């Protein structure tokens, strides 16, 4: 009835909504610091632009090429408009890449601890995952990745900064890696969190002009504060781009989403302010964790992953939840991931951790 690879998936369990969780735990307030959303909201220009939209055109299909958003992004990054493809969030693009590239029996390499969607969609297409161990400091090791390459390898997923560790690989290291890799292997560099990296120039997007086996992923869900609108994009060259476009669903971006993303993209000041605050707050988090003696990975993202060294992580997770803060548990035994929130929330969470330790 359904394919074998789908039969083996975990049954779908709806995630409780924030209001359900609040009710369940008798909380007046619950702040979600588990999904790496933008704690600083959305640019006011987004609301202005959406207010001006004519709902009278709701009966018409959107522009399937998202020309307005496409030309803004292409100009900003100095890339060809034809090297861009949009998706209903990056999730859709990850699925699309797997649909287009993978066949049963293929191999895919991803970091041993990384974003789970790569594995999910690769396995649905019948590919085998080869997890590359992270180094001791939680960084992706391209040497470990290289050792796993075989003539069946089709995709290498590199999440940069990596979710959940937050660790970053420098662009020059990725370039050397690409120079030494067979060109039939597609390297996907997921830069969902790249805006939060300290130097701001860690992107390998420009290399897509040079390597036609490189795909760079970006999303509007993080620094741009538009997670609800589901807009992500990939940058790559021909011939892969042509195949992705041929397989993509025709109207995967609503006009509403395109208008919101275009307005958010134009307001680079909002992004810069968000990033500056996140970086400052991240430093305070690192300082706090150092003082209190909890191990953590070096993060270049809007979250930090730390080890709970007393009792177990479930206890601290529950303590935070009872006090109105939802963090991410269950990614690695004994570790929690917390999104960098507003300064007052960060202080409150830190005080709870300090009290608990
Ligand atoms: N890539 C990474 C590394 C992510 O963490 C996420 C979302 N948490 C995504 C992709 C998916 O992002 P989107 O909201 O654009 O689907």
Automatic annotation (TrEMBL):
InterPro entries listed in its UniProt record: Aminotransferase_I/II_large (IPR004839), HisP_aminotrans (IPR005861), HistidinolP_aminotransfase (IPR050106), PyrdxlP-dep_Trfase (IPR015424), PyrdxlP-dep_Trfase_major (IPR015421), PyrdxlP-dep_Trfase_small (IPR015422)
Catalytic activity: L-histidinol phosphate + 2-oxoglutarate = 3-(imidazol-4-yl)-2-oxopropyl phosphate + L-glutamate
Keywords: Amino-acid biosynthesis, Aminotransferase, Histidine biosynthesis, Pyridoxal phosphate, Transferase
UniProt EC number: 2.6.1.9
Pathway(s) per entry: Amino-acid biosynthesis; L-histidine biosynthesis; L-histidine from 5-phospho-alpha-D-ribose 1-diphosphate: step 7/9
Any Pfam family the entry gives: Aminotran_1_2
Gene3D superfamilies with a match to the protein in the record: Aspartate Aminotransferase, domain 1, Type I PLP-dependent aspartate aminotransferase-like (Major domain)
Residue(s) carrying N6-(pyridoxal phosphate)lysine: 222
Gene Ontology terms, MF aspect: transaminase activity
Source organism superkingdom: Bacteria
Sequence ranges assigned to domain Aminotransferase class I/classII large in this UniProt record: 29-346
Cofactor(s) listed in the protein's UniProt record: pyridoxal 5'-phosphate
Homology family: Belongs to the class-II pyridoxal-phosphate-dependent aminotransferase family. Histidinol-phosphate aminotransferase subfamily.
HAMAP family with a match to the protein in the record: HisC_aminotrans_2 (MF_01023)
Complexes and interactors: Homodimer.
Name assigned to this protein: Histidinol-phosphate aminotransferase
Organism, as annotated: Lentilactobacillus diolivorans
